[in-house]
């Protein structure tokens, strides 16, 4: 198995760039050249027949591959290219000529469009540029008519994508950067213009046209609603119809991989093509032509599904398998997998950061390595029971590898994945076969209508089955934060246990016990830290306000009306951080000011004054009582006392909304250690108040510009 040994150091070089590329980039070219010539020199000096010095060749080849992976990843960072459009930003009258790279995606308030920059300039100058840009176009009738390959003229107004504003939130800017997208722009209606030209690639246009035609066939034959969403996602990789509830049902039941077009789907397409084109092997040169047709169909299908990493992996792997079969040569599955990964990483080294890429390869490797051994654990004579156990052994093998990664990324694990896969995978296979048959029979309306009814019935059955499993008690282990260290420890534990299971060596069992002990110690330490935490966070939540006070594993939250009425939006901003901090109980406190004293543990609040473990926060908003807004004028000669009997020393001043407030005298009166300017504050007020704080020598934090503000509170006795 030579290819896996070569792939690993190459991937290590890519990972090295992604983790420390900014530090090593300046000298990368020099040490790459040095490694290459050093390898050539050692190859001449070390005797070829010396078996004892074979490690020298291995070390040199590994170092060269690491350097090659590093340099390839660096080359794919388009910000380093001298022709990237961000290096030529002109004045206000500048424009960009861009080309749409993907089908337009509709969002709640806009249309999302991925484009590639082609020309940049103004009335007097034009230049060729490169780079990708994420556009959000205001909804109107013109946007709905745009498609892949259309060219647009847009104003040269874009912003770099920043890091997530809240702790524990999904790093969308990094996700886009791994797709070579570093900037985004919102373009209102009337500020962009279509040139009327379409310069998309012919093959991609043909593939998208086929997908559009397939969707029309399904709609014309009465497949609508959730059934259309399931069929279009399962067969075509078209996920625009998947609503949040449907995705949650499949994810909670552990069947999301069914909706993500992957090796299962490509494998079915491959088997169908092999069967339909089986007659060609009896013709002169027919085996070669059969392989060519299979490869063309597989890659056309990959284009229709949007070239997702899982489809790319499966398409490349089956291409190697088909090519090997055409020459009648057996292939080692590990070499085939490594070869497909090599091809994908050479084309785009950043693909290794995609969750689908990681999960698909881990699942296949685990199935190949472990499934035979798991299957042999039970000797079943009954044929039906044997089929069920065979499917279960595949699911167990896949989950052993992908389970830790799923916990790390999604903080949840489907407890009934065996039950789900026993139902979902056979139904998914039948749906794919029926969907293909419906498309093939579309010229015969009566026949297509009959197969479409059966297809709709199966899609409905799949949806209902998954929803039933997801609704079962304890169907999902959720709210689990694994973290990088936990992921490594759990993966090492499972790997050691699997090595013992495969080889039977006691050393694997000893290692598994050691990793298990470290895993328990790690989580015990983190659990103790979570129980001791006294922490608060002012989140960046757009035009809304939300503040969490963490006391042990309990959170008390102050949230504005918009977030309180929209649980999904509320969770979007805060759930990642709460899971990361091990929160098990959440107490919601109305954001409106009230004269009533609220006390819970180390938290107390009345009006705008909050006392949390001895730290005092004053919240000033439009709802603040009039005496508070007029406090500086009413204070009189004795700043130690206020009109409400005096205010104690304030540690934090939180400004939210847009109260009519003279901040400078208020700062002199209460002397806070920190001023926090919340997201709902208008940009003009935020700038003015930040300047006032700077002149007064008080530290200020603008949440909308700097992200969420976090602070650990030292308990005052």
Please name the defining characteristics of this protein:
717 residues, alpha+beta, OB fold (Dihydrolipoamide Acetyltransferase, E2P), 6 domains, 9-stranded mixed β-sheet, 7-stranded mixed β-sheet, 25 helices, 16% strand, globular
How would you describe what is shown here?
A hairpin with a 4-residue loop joins strand 3 and strand 4. The chain is globular, with a radius of gyration of 30 Å. The longest helix has 44 residues, at 2-45. Helix 1 (2-45) crosses helix 2, helix 1 crosses helix 12 (333-347) and helix 23 crosses helix 24. Strands 1, 2, 3, 4, 5, 6, 7, 8 and 9 form a 9-stranded mixed sheet that branches. A 7-stranded mixed sheet has the order 16-17-18-19-20-21-22. The chain starts with a helix and ends in a 5-residue tail after the last strand. The chain has 25 helices and 23 strands. It has 6 domains: 2-75; 85-200, OB fold (Dihydrolipoamide Acetyltransferase, E2P); 204-254 and 416-481, no CATH class; 262-353, no CATH class; 483-531; 534-712, Ribonuclease Z/Hydroxyacylglutathione hydrolase-like (Metallo-beta-lactamase, Chain A, 4-Layer Sandwich), CATH 3.60.15.10. The chain is α+β, with helices and mostly antiparallel strands and 717 residues long.
CATH-defined topology of the largest domain:
Metallo-beta-lactamase, Chain A
For the sheet with most strands, the description reads: 9 strands, mixed
Number of helices: 25
CATH class of the largest domain, anyone?
Answer: Alpha Beta
Compact summary:
With 717 residues, the chain is α+β, with helices and mostly antiparallel strands.
């Amino acid at each position: 198995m030579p290819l896996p040994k070569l792939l690993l150091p190459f991937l290590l070089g890519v990972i090295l760039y992604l983790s420390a590329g900014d530090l090593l980039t300046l000298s990368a070219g020099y040490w790459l050249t040095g490694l290459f010539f050093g390898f050539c020199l050692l190859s001449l000096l070390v005797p070829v027949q010396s078996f004892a010095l074979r490690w020298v060749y291995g070390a040199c080849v590994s170092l060269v591959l690491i350097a090659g992976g590093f340099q390839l990843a660096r080359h794919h960072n388009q910000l380093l290219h001298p022709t990237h459009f961000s290096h030529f930003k002109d004045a206000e009258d500048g424009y960009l000529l861009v080309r749409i790279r993907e089908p337009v995606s509709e969002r709640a308030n806009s249309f999302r469009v991925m484009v590639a920059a082609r020309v940049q300039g103004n009335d007097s100058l034009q230049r060729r540029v490169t780079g990708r840009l994420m556009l959000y176009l205001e909804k109107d009738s013109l946007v709905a008519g745009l498609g892949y390959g259309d060219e647009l003229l847009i104003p040269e107004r874009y912003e770099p994508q920043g890091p997530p504003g809240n702790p524990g939130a999904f790093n969308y800017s990094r996700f886009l950067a791994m797709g070579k997208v570093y900037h985004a722009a919102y373009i209102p209606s009337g500020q962009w213009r279509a040139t009327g030209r379409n310069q998309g690639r012919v093959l991609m246009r043909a593939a998208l046209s086929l997908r559009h035609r397939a969707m029309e066939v399904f709609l014309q034959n009465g497949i609508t609603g959730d059934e259309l969403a399931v069929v279009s996602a399962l067969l075509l990789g078209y996920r625009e119809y998947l609503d949040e509830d449907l995705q949650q049902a499949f994810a909670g039941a552990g069947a999301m991989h069914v909706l993500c077009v992957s090796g299962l789907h490509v494998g079915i397409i491959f088997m169908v093509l092999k069967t339909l084109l089986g007659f060609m092997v009896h013709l002169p040169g027919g085996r070669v032509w059969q392989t060519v047709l299979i490869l063309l169909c597989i890659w056309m299908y990959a284009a229709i599904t949007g070239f997702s990493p899982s489809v790319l992996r499966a398409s490349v792997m089956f291409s190697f398998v088909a090519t090997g079969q055409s020459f009648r040569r057996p292939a080692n599955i590990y070499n085939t997998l490594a070869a497909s990964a090599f091809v994908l990483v050479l084309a785009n080294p950043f693909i290794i950061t995609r969750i689908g890429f990681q999960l698909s390869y881990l699942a296949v490797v685990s199935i190949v390595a472990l499934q035979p051994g798991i299957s042999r654990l039970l000797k079943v004579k009954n044929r039906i029971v044997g089929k069920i156990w065979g499917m279960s052994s595949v699911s167990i093998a896949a989950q052993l590898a992908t389970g830790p990664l799923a916990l790390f990324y999604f903080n949840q694990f489907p407890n009934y994945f065996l039950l789900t896969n026993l139902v979902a995978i056979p139904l998914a296979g039948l749906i794919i076969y029926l969907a293909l048959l419906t498309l093939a029979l579309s010229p015969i309306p009566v026949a297509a209508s009959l197969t479409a009814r059966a297809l709709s019935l199966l899609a409905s059955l799949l949806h209902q089955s998954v929803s039933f499993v997801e609704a079962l008690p304890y169907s999902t282990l959720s709210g689990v934060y694994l973290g990088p260290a936990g992921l490594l420890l759990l993966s090492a534990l499972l790997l050691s246990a699997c090595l013992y299971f495969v080889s039977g060596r006691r050393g694997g069992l000893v290692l598994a016990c050691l990793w298990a002990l470290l895993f328990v110690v790690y989580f015990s330490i983190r659990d103790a830290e979570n129980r001791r935490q006294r922490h608060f966070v002012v989140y960046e939540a757009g035009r809304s306000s939300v503040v969490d006070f963490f006391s042990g594993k309990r959170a008390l939250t102050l949230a504005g009306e918009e977030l309180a009425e929209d649980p999904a939006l509320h969770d979007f901003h805060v759930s990642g951080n709460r899971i990361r901090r091990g929160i098990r109980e959440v107490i919601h406190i109305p954001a409106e000011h009230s004269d009533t004293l609220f006390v819970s543990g180390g938290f107390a609040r009345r009006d705008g004054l909050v006392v949390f473990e001895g730290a005092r926060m004053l919240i000033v908003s439009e709802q603040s009582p009039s005496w508070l807004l007029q406090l500086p004028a009413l204070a009189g000669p004795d700043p130690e006392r206020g009109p409400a009997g005096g205010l104690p020393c304030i540690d934090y001043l939180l400004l939210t909304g847009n109260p009519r407030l003279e901040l400078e005298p208020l700062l002199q009166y209460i002397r806070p250690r920190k001023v926090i300017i919340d997201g709902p504050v208008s940009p003009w007020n935020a700038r003015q108040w930040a300047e006032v704080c700077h002149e007064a020598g008080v530290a200020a934090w603008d949440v909308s510009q700097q992200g969420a503000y976090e602070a650990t509170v030292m308990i005052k006795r």
